[in-house]
Amino acid sequence: MSAKARMFLKRLFDWCGLKIRRTDNEQFFDFEALLWHRMHRSKPFRFIQIGACDGKRFDPIHDFIKANSSAVEGVVVEPLPDLYAALCRTYAACQGIQPINCAIHNSAATMLLHRVRSSSLGTLPEWAIGISSFDRSHLHRLGVPDSAIEEVPVPCQTLARLIEITGFSSVELLQIDTEGYDAEIILSIDFSSFCPTVIRFEHSRNSQGMPDETYHQVIDHLHAGGYEVIPVESDAIAFQRSILETSSPPGNLRV
To answer: What is the pTM of this model?
Structure first.
């Protein structure tokens, strides 16, 4: 983490009324505390989640969304039919959540998504259900044999089109986990027309995920859009710099 990022993180926590303490994990960051803080600043709390899986497993925002189901509005995007059906069940009681059955792609109307066959899931770790990717080699890098991979054609639309049809042009959070396509989505964003307060995305640089050159392109694009970026294990969290400049800290932050 750069000195500038550490200073930004300290300012953010001081502003929120939180204390930083030493930990053996140098990448420690309380993401949920930030979401609670933004909930205090914006009601309803609006978000877009790309790559929502079933809305439960390996989901960094599920607990927060369920705990605030009456005060959130969100679009949750999942392209695979069976996981989309599970996603709909997860949020069936949440009137403000809109499940969308598609993938986000910058140009294609249909793409092949590579996933682990259901018959092979029992022989692989649980996380194998959530690693579907446009890139077949992404599954290979994670140790999935070619015989365990199947291809599923899925409908696609651009992020801009998703925003247009849902009306979610202003959101507190853009959550992205697309197993290899996160960079392309972020690089497609015109921050003059769509500028989420917080963007969380997966880079997985520690496991041969996003190439360094691409990662730095993404960081440069975010910096140019007015964001600072904090790496957190395999993910990164980008914040609008303006949240420290235009708002006053909340009187009571729930963590």
So the answer is: 0.85
Closest CA to 199 of 153, 154, 241, 157: 241
Q: Report domain extents, the chain.
A: 3-103+157-244
3-103+157-244: CATH homologous superfamily?
Vaccinia Virus protein VP39 (3.40.50.150)
Rounded Cα gap, residues 129 and 124, in angstroms: 9
Find the distance separating the first CA and the last CA of the chain, reported in whole Å.
24
What gap in Å lies between CA 174 and CA 48, rounded to an integer?
A: 5
Query: What are the tens digits of pLDDT across the range 22-68?
Result: 433 444 567 888 888 888 777 789 999 999 999 999 999 999 999 99
Structure tokens at 13: 């926590």
Does residue 44 contact residue 72 with C-beta atoms inside 8 Å? yes
Whole-number Å distance between alpha carbons of 99 and 50: 10
Q: What is the pLDDT of residues 218-246, one digit of tens each?
A: 999 999 999 999 988 889 999 998 876 65
**DSSP conformational letter for 193:** T
Q: If we measure between CA atoms, which residue out of 187, 170, 169 comes closest to residue 178?
A: 187
